What does this fold into?
Amino acid sequence: MKTKKTKRLLWATAIFFVFITIIIITNESYALLETISNGNAEVNTGGWTIKLNEKNISSGVTEKFTLNNITYNNTNPNIDEKYIAPGKSGYFDIILDPTGTEVAISYEIKVNLEDTNYPSNIKFSVEELNSNANITSENNTFTGVISLEEVTKSKTITLRLHLNWENDEQFNEEDTSLGIVENNRFEIPIKVILNQYQG
It folds into this structure.
């Protein structure tokens, strides 16, 4: 028959071994976790070098500028070239140079007419030249994707922003105040946002 002293010794020995086992398991788990967290986290990404109208914006892919050098179409014989007026139209080219870029590009072009006093009968649209790109538009914001194939085969990609000043009688007063100034120019703030497109 086991004495009380023997039972205590057995219990103490069992607790000691349980305690040692817990320490060993904890240290092994910590070492494993530390190895995993210090592992190589390198992620392969495509090259990303973008120039917008010859300005490198690779480090910051949002560009704001004032559109004031519109090329006007001389399609209306009733409007003198020195003046702007309803019925006049024109365009502004946004030229992207993707040399060194190895990923598709998504873009957003926002025309900030709300930051101006211009009437809302001045309409905008965007066309990607030499491409059948699907461009969506909502509230003067135009979005699209330039495919990787197009990025790699093109030295430059031109996004043409069209302006069309529609003749609308309800805007006669605003139209007149813009049109009576000789050599007047539109100054329209736009924002271009470019991102790598992952699909």
Observations:
- Residues 28-45 have pLDDT under 50 and may be disordered.
- Residues 8 and 14 are 10 Å apart (CA to CA).
- The chain is about 25% helix and 35% strand.
